[in-house]
């Protein structure tokens, strides 16, 4: 009976943590749309949204309400089940990736230690890559089920783009795994916090650069937004979608941006580590306070990357499709291979 009570408490902890992370992801995705419009307005010397609420702060709610109450149209020639499955799969896979990210250390509540990580599995990196790979099906299914030639072309573009850039992304991560010796996300963060407290970006600047460029391509962000090239493919793979099905695709893109930023902060910038080269335990703060500060530090790093995502969109023009493929196959993959080989040689030399 005692073990049963402990299990229920554990499940309740995880249920609350899942609810918090999902709610946080949705809210951040919603207000990233507002931030994108405000940053774009700032870069273009205009005001941006300023009607709904003070400084336009309620604009995301107005946009969400508009999508929710719009008429839902399903083309007669479409495959109805797959037409619904596409955006649902895109949204689910976007949210699933957050399960293995360590959002902070450990909170001590009511005499019990609560970890701010939903699932600390020993193959966290492989889990992330597996779920990200499934996200391609949301785009492919949606484009094919629409029975629209422009949607299908955009879906094929998106699938080939993601497959191409996942290779370079995986190779860039192999160099990080050589330094840490683990696939566990908490172990990767611990490797940056313990010892000399050095973030991986110091040792792997090229690996981080490759990962960041590939993250832009995986999220279909400018200059890699070829699946949504309006001037070539009308509206891209979600051209036939309306109402909240379109909203799911749009929300999934911003959630992917948020999760990609959090993963980059975790792998290369110490995760919830507050400062590099500093031992925060010597500050004299309680464990819970350090955990809360660590969570805030991870959010600050994530928001910085979100700003860079937005900044790049409104600064750099879109590549041609042949340029996109050449960059992925002929530039990034050889660069990632060279970085991996050099890292392997250095690690082997240091371990002699």
What structural keywords apply?
about 70% helix; mainly alpha; about 350 residues; two-stranded antiparallel ribbon; about 0% strand; single chain
Brief write-up:
This protein has 352 residues and is mostly helical. Helices cover 68% and strands 2% of the residues.
Describe the structure.
The protein has 352 residues and is mainly α. It has one domain (70-350). Helices cover 68% and strands 2% of the residues. The protein has helices at residues 2-43, 59-69, 80-96, 124-145, 149-180, 185-193, 200-203, 205-218, 230-233, 243-268, 287-313, 321-350; strands at 106-109, 112-115. The protein has a two-stranded antiparallel ribbon with strand order 1-2. Helix 3 runs antiparallel to helix 4 (124-145), helix 3 (80-96) runs parallel beside helix 10 (243-268) and helix 5 (149-180) runs antiparallel to helix 8. The chain starts with a helix and ends with a helix. The mean pLDDT is 87.
């Amino acid at each position: 009976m005692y073990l049963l009570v402990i299990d229920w408490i554990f499940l309740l902890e995880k249920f609350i943590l899942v609810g918090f992370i999902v709610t946080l992801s949705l809210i951040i995705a919603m207000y990233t749309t507002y931030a994108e419009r405000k940053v774009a307005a700032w870069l273009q010397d205009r005001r941006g949204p300023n009607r709904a609420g003070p400084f336009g702060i309620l604009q995301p709610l107005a946009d969400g309400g508009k999508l929710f109450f719009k008429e839902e149209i399903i083309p007669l020639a479409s495959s109805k089940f797959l037409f619904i499955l596409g955006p649902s799969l895109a949204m689910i896979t976007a949210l699933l990736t957050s399960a293995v990210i360590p959002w902070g250390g450990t909170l001590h509540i009511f005499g019990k230690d609560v970890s701010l990580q939903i699932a600390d599995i020993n193959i966290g990196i492989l889990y992330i890559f597996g779920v990200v790979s499934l996200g391609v099906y949301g785009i492919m299914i949606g484009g094919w089920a629409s029975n629209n030639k422009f949607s299908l072309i955009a879906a094929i573009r998106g699938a080939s783009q993601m497959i191409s850039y996942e290779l370079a992304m995986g190779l860039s991560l192999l160099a990080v795994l050589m330094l840490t010796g683990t696939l566990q996300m908490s172990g990767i963060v611990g490797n940056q916090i313990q010892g000399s407290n050095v973030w991986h970006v110091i040792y792997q600047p090229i690996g981080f650069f490759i990962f960041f460029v590939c993250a832009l391509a995986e999220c279909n962000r400018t200059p890699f937004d070829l699946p949504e090239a309006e001037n070539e493919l009308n509206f891209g793979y979600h051209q036939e979608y309306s109402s909240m099905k379109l909203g799911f695709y749009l929300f999934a893109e911003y959630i992917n941006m948020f999760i990609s930023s959090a993963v980059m902060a975790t792998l290369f910038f110490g995760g919830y580590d507050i400062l590099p080269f500093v031992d925060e335990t010597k500050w004299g703060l309680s464990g819970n306070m350090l955990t809360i500060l660590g969570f805030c530090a991870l959010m600050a790093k994530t928001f910085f990357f979100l700003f860079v995502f937005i900044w790049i969109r409104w600064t750099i023009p879109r590549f041609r499709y042949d340029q996109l493929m050449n960059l992925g196959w002929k530039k990034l993959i050889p660069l990632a291979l060279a970085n991996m080989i050099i890292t392997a040689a250095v690690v082997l030399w240091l371990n002699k």
